[in-house]
Amino acid sequence: TFLARATLFDNPVFGAAIRRTNAVPVDRDGGGPAGLRLVLQALAAGRAVVLFPEGTRTRDGRLQPVRPGVGLIALKSAAPVVPAWIEGSFRVLGRSRHVPRPARVEVRFGPPVHLAPLRAAAATARREEIKGLYAAAARTILEAIAALGGVPAPEDTSSTNAADRATGRAA
Q: Which SS3 state, helix, strand or coil, does residue 23 take?
């Protein structure tokens, strides 16, 4: 199971293909309650769920800030979070490319991220504290991914990507 931008399902051929992989459609501004429920149910059933925590392909090949939903999912589930670094995907299908080109892609997996203290805190947190805990979990996951790639973690872990910040659409 993995999350995919809802508009990808609009293409009849590609939409059919990703439906067969158990993709869950999410809108760009968040998964919404239905998508979150499906992801949490899949995790509770012991199924693997692939999340792309940046929410979109990078414009420049560098690691981007993660979206806070990854922290929410990580803390609401008891599932282990295994970070992965994908090297070379930008060369194959950068954001401005529409046709993939041949290039080597390497995937590195790290040990599960330790989130027990954040999960315990979230279980008893007041409403005004919970978003900070989701952000802390997202940051912890981002740092694990960055370490696998040998790159620094971006400072900003807001829910918007660099393009949104640059165009002033950031919240």
A: strand
Distance of CA 119 to the CA centre of its chain: 18
Question: What's phi and psi for 31, nearest 5 deg?
Answer: -75, -20
What is the rounded radius of gyration, in angstroms, for the C-alpha atoms of the chain? Answer: 16
Residue 45 gets which letter from DSSP? T
User: Strand, coil or helix: what is 121?
Assistant: helix
What pTM value is reported for the model?
0.77
The tens digit of pLDDT for each residue in 60-107 reads 778 888 887 889 999 999 899 999 988 887 777 777 777 888 989 899
How far apart CA 36 and CA 34 sit, in angstroms, is 5
- In degrees, to the nearest 5, what angle opens at C-alpha 58 toward C-alphas 109 and 63? 45
What's the rounded Cα separation, in Å, for the pair 100 and 57? 14
Q: Is the dihedral of CA 27, 21, 84, 10 positive or negative?
A: negative
Q: Are strands 106-109 and 84-87 parallel, antiparallel or unpaired?
A: antiparallel
Closest CA to 67 of 51, 55, 58: 55
Distance of CA 5 to the CA centre of its chain: 11
The residue type found at 88 is G
Instruction: Please return the burial class of 117, using the count of CB atoms within 10 Å of its CB with bins 0-12, 13-18 and 19+.
Output: exposed
